[in-house]
Amino acid sequence: MGMTMTQKILAAHAGLPSVEAGQLIEADLDLVLGNDVTTPVAIHEMDKFKADKVFDKDKIAMVLDHFTPNKDIKSAEHCKCVREYACAHNITNFFDVGEMGIEHALLPEKGLIVAGETCIGADSHTCTYGALGAFSTGVGSTDMAAGMATGKAWFKVPSAIKFVLTGKPGKWVSGKDVILHIIGLIGVDGALYKSMEFVGDGIANLSMDDRFSMANMAIEAGAKNGIFPVDDQTIAYMKEHSVKDYTVYEADEDAVYDETYTIDLSTLEPTVAFPHLPENTKPISEVPEIKIDQVVIGSCTNGRIEDLRVAAKILEGKKCAKGLRVIVIPATQAIYLQAMEEGLLKTFIEAGAVVSTPTCGPCLGGHMGILAAGEKAVATTNRNFVGRMGHVESEIYLASPAVAAASAITGMISDPRKM
Amino acid sequence: MKAHGTVHKYGDNVDTDVIIPARYLNSSDPAELAKNCMEDIDPDFVNRVKQGDIMVANKNFGCGSSREHAPIAIKASGISCVIAETFARIFYRNAINIGLPIIECPEAAKAIEAGDEVEIDFDSGMIYDKTKGTEYKGQAFPPFMQEIIKAEGLINYINNK
Predict the structure, then answer these.
(1) Which of A76, A285, B48, B88 has a CB 3.0–4.6 Å from the CB of B62, allowing a cystine?
(2) pTM above 0.90, yes or no
(3) What interface predicted TM-score (ipTM) does this complex get?
(4) CB contact under 8 A, A140 and B67
(5) For residue range B23-38, what is the model confidence (pLDDT) as tens digits?
């Protein structure tokens, strides 16, 4: 029986000629990741191991991105714990304030993960690297500790859903709109325990930044991973960012899928997910007048350079609505610098937005933009759960950078095509 | 091994943000996390919960963030087992890895109500609703996962290998 792309990567890392859905395997890991929230718990678990050593100091990444620059004393203690561990164990890829960025934008940018590799991360959005044709998935802190100690993880081989993407998205329609549309279609548990495999000639019309934001939100449909085939754009990205050797895996022609969806990208509109689940989506033409209090443009989903370029293009020469707080968060230092050199930051500041240092910050209700009771935000982030960005009676509307920027000007959820 | 207690019932898609909001993730101390468990969905839970109580929910329990703080908070609050129609995959792994018993059983999850007295026999996978006089068979774990549970978590399991 043929294998999916994900199954082929897992088989290779388990040293098996083939695997099938449901099989329990132990796979070798090329990268193990953690952040300032999850790594302290993993370090605590590491104490229980008989030997106090890591499997490979070059294959572990620790990124202090969630509550940094330290938002309070307890967060500072967590970061200190990770910093001291990284120093004591000589962890090569430890990223502290000054070097750090939001982990899922940072790791591909630093070339730490490439096609054909296997990665676990103690952060649910670790599935982002599927955009590069890698198998990557989110786990908890104990799995992270086991991975750090042994270089291996256990997996139940997933079955898959195939998404055949055709056509070209229209103006101001991005990867974020495509993935929100898909989550609206299948629901927040529509891909539970499964792979989402994206294929089709429409992929050539999606940039790497589009693909990162799509793979990033596979978890919001419950998926184990989301994965894209490797094409010229992927190879160009990897050559620019990494010195690692990559391996290209392709699904077998007779691979079995649980379901297949065909989506014509040219038919999609900018899409918004209403509170309090990412599956509550509406095309922008069906969104009523909703007044907002805050806009957040950033996160591991949409804090990349292309996202900032789109937002700046819409905001150029315009002013943010009076009474609205607009927060722009470049995802990494390199993106921040590039946005500065391209004049994007000037556009944001002149429009009346604030620009923050890289941080996950408001996306998870950490700091840098918490909502009060009754407030509404349009955010380019990934979750709109109850209380996610602050008070339990606040509301988050998930959207693309284009919709967020258009909404920043009007103070209402707005269609960028009408600006 | 058995569990016996009063049921706290929840619906679909209970996410890890409502199980333990991010504003409390600057701590990883189980007792500290337990103080705010379920705060954003059920503020009175921490006052009602008794040692040994059972949590029952519908589909996709534990979706969202990978924070292991969520099963840690539930376990430290006194909950002896979580029964659900389905679990989100990262929560499922985390619960097994830290030794919080969980059972997938759609029939039980749908029928059992808040306040019911429930007994669970982990060896047989049987769930008894004492209040309603009904019983259900939960899905058994594959042998590999039973080994992890028996070792009281993933790290001990690896150490014992």
Answers:
(1) B88
(2) yes
(3) 0.96
(4) yes
(5) 999 999 999 999 999 9
